[in-house]
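Lab manual, section 2.4: Encoding a predicted structure.

Procedure: take the sequence of the chain (252 residues), apply the prediction step described in section 2.3, and record the output as structure tokens. A sample record is shown.
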Amino acid sequence: MAAARLSRDLDRRRREGAVLTATVRTVAETGSTNADMAELARNGASEGLWLRAERQSAGKGRQGRAWQSPPGNLYVSTLVRTRAGEPSPATLALVAAVALDETARVFGLAPMLKWPNDLLVDGAKLSGILLERVGDAVILGFGVNLAHHPGDLDRATTSFAAHGPAPDPQLFAETLAESFARWVSRWREGIAPVRERWLARAHPPGTALTARLADGTSLDGLFGGLDGEGALILRLADGTSHVIHAADVFLL
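Recorded output:
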């Protein structure tokens, strides 16, 4: 596919000493940009490659949920090749969140972060981020409601267009790619600056939350921050704290 040729060109330019940040390749339609990027990762694609689709026919969210993909919104994926000695690959969820938050602010919105990587505006969900592991690569897919937002979900959603002009998807993707490259570089030196920025953009300590765990049980408590590895700390009513590494989290 064309993206594979682009990946080979990026590798060649790196060998020739070119300074690269990111290249965003756009296609009119695909099934899923994450699935395409996973295929590229298996075929040796390196960092700096982004794939954006104007429309997806089989977009997906967390836990296999379908992701509605009308034209005008952002559907884009990239990859990070992990290396020994780096922070946990799971903490790339925080990297993705702070980069997307930074980009949203460039285009006029000031979201609030909810663990691990949701962006909320007035309590409504603006975006979704999906991480998948393929060998030594982490695939990161971003779905951002620019021009539209669904109205039939079990939680409130919003879009840029609900608050002002909708950004151009290609320009938004290119801005996000540059921000993400900067934050990945910081992350490779240690998670502390990423964690600090995430906490600065998140709901305040003491915010009431519900964490729905993978086994179907739920825990109610107060937001107690993040541990040193980026996991959620939930303060329970009995005074104990519970460290959560994976859950769906809801504001109460």
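Check your result against the sample. Residues 132 and 147 are 26 Å apart (CA to CA).
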